[in-house]
Amino acid sequence: MSPIGSAGSAMSVQQIIDLRNQIINRSDALQDIHAPEADAARAAGPAPSFDATLQSMLGSVNAAQTRADDVGAAYQRGEVTDVAQVMLARQEAGVAFEATLQVRNKLLSAYQDIMRMGV
Description:
Blueprint: H1 13-43, H2 50-77, H3 83-117
């Protein structure tokens, strides 16, 4: 027997309608709360292009690798004595490079999937 048709703890049709109306009211309230944020995002201008985002990401990876090289060279010259700082810079550069490699692999896979669709 379905919960709507059973007696006792089952919800009546009116209770279900009231619950639905409460959910709709809460949804409307949440949309009103977040509307200024969405308006501000639209006023800030268009979203950056894929190309600009990719260039920015590659620039930050390059900066991390350059920093790691600079810290390593400074350690070899004796200017930096904290080996943990050197290892941390190398790890950051390695993680950034691995993330970039994973993004490249995903983009290549998506490109190949799209090319197979045309056949």
